[in-house]
Every structure is written in C-alpha cells, then in structure tokens.
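ok so i was messing around last nite and threw this chain in just to see what happens. nothing serious, just curious
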Amino acid sequence: MSGEELVSRIRESNRRRQAVIDAVCGACENKCCQQMTMMGGQDLRRLLRGMLLAPEFEAQVRGGLRRVADRLEVDLRVVQHVTELLAASQPDDRANDIAALRASVRDWAEFVAWLRSDFDLTLDELRRLLMFSAIRSNTLNALSRFTGGLGALVNLSGDEASFRFHGRRIAPPPCLFYLDDLGCICADAKPAKCANFFCAGVPNLVEELRRELSFDDFVLANFGVTSVAEAIRMMRLERRLGPEFVDPKVLLGATEEDIEAVAAALGRSGETVRLKRLDRPGMRSAAEVEQELASIPDDTALIEAYPAIDGNTLYELALALDRIRLRDEHPSFVLIARELAATPAAHPLWDDQMMAQPLGALDLFAIEH
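result:
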C-alpha cells in the first residue's frame, strides 16, 4: 500500500468510525458525557500540549469553556437564591453553616470568572479545571445541612438550571468539557478514559463498530495524519515542557529519511538516541513491551524501526503503555513502521463488548508526504 493509499484509508476509516459514534452516542443522548468529568492530571498535559501546538485548538477550548461558564452561572444563580432564602430564615446558631455555604458559593463564582478569563496557558493554571468537582460537591454538602435545602435547589431550577434528583441525591452534572451542540471541546485531547471508550449501553458502541469496521480498519481509525515536521515539533515541545510531558509515539508510513529526521531531532533535544532497525514485523506481548521500556535509561530515546506492524502489536503496546501511564512514567520511545500489516486474527479485546478499546489515548500518526 502506498503512502497516499494509507492516508486515504485512514481518513475513510476515521469518517466511518465517527459516523458510528455519532449515531450510537446520539441514540443514548451522550449519557457517558452527562456523568461528571473524567479529566485527570495526566490528561491535562495532553490538553495543554494540544493548545500550545495549535492556536485554533486553543481558541476552541477557550471558547468552549466560556460557554460552559454560562451554563455554570445559571446553576450558580439558583444556588445563590437558595443561600439567601436560607440565610433569612435560619436562627442565629446556624451562622457558621451559612458562612460555610457562602464560602462555597464564592468559590463557585470565582471559578466561573476564571473560566471566562484569558488565563495563562500553563499546567498550574489548567489544574484549576480539576477543582470544580470539589467546589460543586462542597456547595451541595453545605446545602444538605439545612432541612429542605436540596429540595429548594431542585424546585427553583426550573427548566434552565441542571439540578435534578437521582434517587435521594442530586444527579451528577455534565462533563465540564461537554457542550450539547459541539460534543467534547477537547477533541483528540480528550481524557484517556473517554478516548478508550467503554460502553455498557444498548445499542453497544463497540458492537456497532464491529459491525461496521474490520479490526484493521478500526485500528487505522485511531490514527491521525500529520507531516514528519509536525510530529517532530510535538516531540520537541514535550521535551521543552518537561519529561512528564513526553508520550511515546507510533509513526506509520515513514520513510528512511523520516527515521533519520526523528533521530536527529531527539538527539538535538539532548537525549542519547538508540536506533534499532528490525527486519521482522513487530510482535510482542504487553509484558515484553513494558519490560523493554522500563529498561530505557534516563535521558535516552529508543527508536524502533520495523518494516510493518499489525493491529495486535499496537493493542499490546497500548496495554503496556496504559500501565506505564498509570504509574506516571514517561519513556522516550518512538515506534516507526512503513506499513500496517493485515492481522490474521483480531485481538481478543476487540471481541469483548464490555472492554474499553485501548488505542484512543496513544499518539498514533500516519506520515503524509
């Protein structure tokens, strides 16, 4: 398969996968995105990297967060209204509880103002995005200390605010990064748990994908398309930001010149480059990959160049890298292959509807020349 044919197939596979996701997730009204936020500290690094790499993506995220601020302000007005009703009706011995509630309301208001601000594009600033779950929880806990406090919150919400009972508790809010008309404002920088989607719904997302795509086409649908210059720019940015930002890369459709360019760029970044050229297709278990990457010395980049890899190899790589990610380790590793080999038998996870498919959070790119 030529490089042009590979890129074309990837784009078509992406289109078909997205059509299935739109249809299935639309049928269940995006329930996964209505259950709070999956964003974690490591996910924020991916988000920051994406915003720094692409000004248009930065504008998308900032614009989306300002719209989220509008949504949170509607809820805030209801909370403020209930707070003042309670303050006017409580005896003096509840002054401390009222003060605690008002402090939580102030935290909520300050968070909304921050979302609308031109905050600095740093990891310390983005970490504030992880604070809202605690702010909302503290506010609801403070309201729950008053008889009828949560009931008033729901009753005064009307059709605009989000507060609803789910059993005896207030239902969780939508994801902080989700907008009804746009979906996830993080796009390809979405949290790993969302990118490696898990679906227990009916219709089941994984089952519908299996109906519409072959295993190899699904693997290709997880690839992005970029130039070798852009891939190198991403790697160099990660290293400027710090070792905790370094994510392993898979480059498909790369030429010999691309391999040399990547090796030279990592060398210029200050790393000692180990380039291994293998004349056999890549085929290793997750445990073998994990063991190999654990042995990479500090300040050393490992580049492995294969004639071809297949989808099962990438699944095993993804499983290993997920375990490494959970330990917050960041090996400097680049796997480069000329092409994706046909898979004789799909990975066992592909046949399990209830398991997350582990490729979504990997940096997988096909090189377009």
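not much to say yet. Residues 55-89 form the longest helix (35 residues).
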